[in-house]
Amino acid sequence: MELLPISTPHCRVERDGRLVIVTMDRPEARNALSTDMLIGMAEAWAYISAEPGVRVGILTGANNTFCAGADLKAMGAPSTDDRVRQRAAEIPNFHWKGLLREDMPTKPIISAIEGYAVAGGTELLVGTDLRVVAESATLGLFEAKRALFPMGGSAVRLPRQIPYAFAMDLLLTGRAITAPEAYRMGLINQIVPDGQALPKAIELAEDIASSGPLAVQAILRTYRETLALPEEEALKISDNLGWPVIASEDAKEGSRAFREKRPPRYEGA
What ranges does the record give for the region Disordered, renumbered to this chain (predicted)? Predict the structure, then answer.
């Protein structure tokens, strides 16, 4: 696995072929968010979008913990790393980009969660496309309990992703929930034994990476661009994005591979 130079003191960004694994790495603070971490994540999402050979990203946390939320002091203080300070000055709204609130990656992001994924940790989960969670993990949006507000976007996104009553339960009570409860709500995709979230996320990512990249990206884009539209208008956007995929060389390769009973070789064209 290749450690990419966009890594920071609190965020490891590694490439493994078609996958990029982003690890929040501040274990002494349960991977609470810092400027160093947010810059690393913002640059990782941009890299994943820009690199044609990258098909899927994975977000996880070091030391069997996902993320314990925002560390307001660390997020407000300048980094001790020269490159991070420079990038913080150069990247507009790097906090929102890192939190998956702004400039969402054009490719799927899977969260692999062990331990605590609370407050900002759950907000990051809500920003990802697929969620693999260890059986003893703890999730929750604690902001209201602390007289704060979920600035990562969950007040908007969560009621669009899971039933309204479940969303309001999480947002208004600020209580912790278990992985089985999150699964019953429809908030997460899979529960795995402790220690297996990342291996399962990698397995899932490889499965997605074997699909046609143009199709995968067009499906994501269609969902995001049609959220607030009536069906008739949404279908027009869906058609505009879908027909070029149908006419692509990858689509022809998919048909050939099926006929020839072999794995397809997609090139993203």
Answer: 250-269
